[in-house]
Design the sequence.
């Protein structure tokens, strides 16, 4: 772990945690609102299929809710 020597170092950490918080909120939303935790799967192949279909379903929902998010939808479908 690197020491924090300057205010810029401290702000870098704050901004990193802010970004992490955004990611956590996105995952929480996906789990709660889209019920991503509901399927009970044990086999790896079933999990893999679920993980492949989930971003496509999410991209579809995003495209239906907000036409201005086409760029996000396209990115999800490409990656």
Sequence:
């Amino acid at each position: 772990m690197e020491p924090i020597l300057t205010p810029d170092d401290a702000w870098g950490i704050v901004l990193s945690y802010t970004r992490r918080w955004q990611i956590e909120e996105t995952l929480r939303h996906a789990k709660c609102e889209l019920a991503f935790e509901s399927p009970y799967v044990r086999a790896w192949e079933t999990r893999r299929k679920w993980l492949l279909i989930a971003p496509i379903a999410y991209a579809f929902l995003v495209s239906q809710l907000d036409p201005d998010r086409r760029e996000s939808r396209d990115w999800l479908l490409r990656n």
In short: The mean pLDDT is 79. Residues 10-39 form one domain. The two ends are 32 Å apart (CA to CA). The chain has two domains: 10-39, 41-79.
